[in-house]
Amino acid sequence: MEARVGLLVGVENTFPEPFISLVNRRGRAHGVVAEMCRLGGTRELEGRQRYQVIVDRISHEVPFYRAYLKSAALQGSAVINDPFWWEADEKFFECTLARRLGVAVPRTVILPNKEYIPYIEPERSLRNLEYPLDWEGILSYTGLPAVLKPNTGGGWRDVYMIDTPEELISAYDRTGTKTMILQERIQWQDYLRCIVIGGEVLVFRYDPHRPFLERYVTDDPPPHALSELAAEQARTLTDALGYDVDTVEFAVRDGVLYAIDFLNPAPDFDRFSIKEAGFNWVLSKMTQLVIGYATGELDPPWRGAHRWWRFV
Ligand SMILES: Nc1ncnc2c1ncn2[C@@H]1O[C@H](COP(=O)(O)OP(=O)(O)OP(=O)(O)O)[C@@H](O)[C@H]1O
Ligand SMILES: [Mg+2]
Questions:
Q1: Domain spans of the chain?
Q2: CA-CA-CA-CA torsion for 49, 50, 55, 60, nearest 10 degrees?
Q3: Distance (Å, whole) CA 42 – CA 49
Q4: Class of the domain covering 3-83+289-311
Q5: How far is the CA of 149 from the centre of ligand 2 (A)?
Q6: Ligand 1 centroid to 190 CA: how many Å?
Q7: Span 104-151, pLDDT tens digits
Q8: What pTM value is reported for the model?
Q9: Ligand 1 pocket, 89 CB below 6 A?
Q10: Strands of 200-206's sheet in order across
Q11: Residue environment code for 65-81, b if the CB has 16+ CB neighbours within 10 A, otherwise e
């Protein structure tokens, strides 16, 4: 029987078409076909799933997709990435995980929200919270400069560079109902970004100060030893999180790699951003991964990790 790979995407426009074509080309001999998912009101009971593999690039922004993916995962679809864990994952947790795995992370504090939904009354509902916050104590731990950023988030939205206590208060006051972390800002000498796919790693030097499409540096690769260390740590973190696919960022200070952000389960696969060689690597590894799952040769790392799996 044919095995079908479905792709869920947002605005990205360079990855979908070449990916689907390559899966169809390389998959033909294995009975594997690929297409864009098409979903409407979806019945819970569908019989055999239409998609044996689903590559999810956007369910963090479209809750309906997430709901569908959880049911599909329960019925055997290999969803890339695990929709349950993706939903639970947060940067503060990831700092603790990294530290426990021996990967350095910036000193980090999680902050109570600035605001709450309307029917929360502070005096009655928030009795466990200290008020006002001990900003002095918080800053004495993280130091300055620091970074204030969402505990879950992406696309550099609501990321504030903080140089003074006044800037911290004024940025925090603008964060509304978002849960934020305050982090020591690593004053780095080098910065790396690793794309991890199915346990394989492509390491880039990355320059966050450049314009968006020029940040992946392809003409000046990092030293071999540093690159190897980054690949090893990126693999360790991604493996522990149970993601098939992730991007792991490191700031390098005095030879130490500090994990800055590895909550990127829908990595940047844009051809113009990761450049031709990176793009071809991504296409090839993604194709290999989905064909492995579609044919049953490989199993998603998270399959069986959830308790309900044992009962079905
Ligand atoms: N602790 C830190 N020290 C130094 N730089 C930092 C730190 N935290 C964040 N940055 C800078 O801010 C950028 C954005 O932070 P982060 O990656 O956490 O946000 P994001 O919204 O998840 O971004 P993306 O969508 O690129 O993954 C990083 O690429 C890095 O340049
Ligand atoms: Mg991110």
A1: 3-83+289-311, 90-104+187-264, 107-184
A2: -70
A3: 11
A4: alpha beta
A5: 10
A6: 14
A7: 999 999 999 999 998 998 889 999 999 999 999 999 999 999 999 999
A8: 0.96
A9: no
A10: 216-217, 200-206, 190-197, 245-253, 256-261
A11: bbebbbbbbeeebbbbb
| Structure confidence at residue 174 as a pLDDT band (50, 70, 90) | very high
Query: One-letter amino acid identity for 60?
Result: H
Question: Can you read off the two tokens belonging to residue 8?
Answer: 């869920």
Average pLDDT, the chain: 96
CB-ligand 1 contact for 156 (6 Å cutoff): yes
How far is residue 163's CA from residue 10's CA, in Å, rounded to a whole number?
35
Q: Is the CB of 208 under 6 A from ligand 1?
A: yes
Ligand nearest to the CA of 260: 1
State residue 45's pLDDT score. 81
Name which CATH class applies to 90-104+187-264.
Answer: alpha beta
Confidence (pLDDT) at 264:
97
Ligand 1 pocket, 300 CB below 6 A? no
Identical fold for domains 3-83+289-311 and 90-104+187-264, yes or no, is no
- Angstrom CA distances, 288 to 24, 112, 268, 293, stand at 12, 43, 18, 9
pLDDT score recorded for residue 122: 85
Position 46 confidence tier, pLDDT thresholds 50, 70, 90: low
Would you state the torsion angle of the CA atoms of residues 10, 160, 197, 14, taken in this order, to the nearest 10 degrees? Answer: 40
- List of residues 6+ apart from 177 with CB closer than 8 A: 113, 114, 115, 116, 117
Which CATH number does 107-184 carry?
Answer: 3.30.1490.20
